[in-house]
Design a protein that fits this description.
- The chain is built from three helices and five strands.
- β2 and β3 form a beta hairpin.
- The chain starts with a strand and ends with a helix.
- The longest helix has 17 residues.
- About 15% of the residues are buried.
- With about 90 residues, the protein is α/β, with parallel strands linked by helices.
- The strands form two sheets. Strands 1-4-5 form a three-stranded parallel beta sheet, with helices on both faces.
- α1 packs parallel to α2.
């Protein structure tokens, strides 16, 4: 099984006295990713952005660990390459 996430950033929601974001959201997401991986689910998460550098944000890397990949919106073929690499691992 695989969990593939394509994202434009970090988890965030607020409204009517409720806030979900920042370190609490990073930690919660990381916990859920680790839970999936413990069940044998392989994870891969893409941070798609138009930033000129290809570094993955601190929070994104914290949430998805080694499964975090930065992708430039002008080169989405990177997604195909890394998904194929994931599918080829045992």
């Amino acid at each position: 099984s695989y969990f593939i996430n394509i994202s434009d950033g970090e988890p965030y929601f607020s409204g009517n006295g409720f806030y979900y974001g920042g370190d609490a959201a990073f930690d919660h997401t990381r916990k859920m990713v680790m839970k999936m991986e413990a069940m044998g689910i392989k994870t891969l998460s893409y941070f798609v952005s138009s930033y000129s550098d290809d570094t993955v944000s601190r929070g994104f890397k914290k949430m998805y660990g080694k499964g975090a990949v930065a992708v430039d919106v002008t080169n989405l073929s990177q997604i195909t390459k890394t998904v194929n690499k994931l599918f080829m691992t045992k």
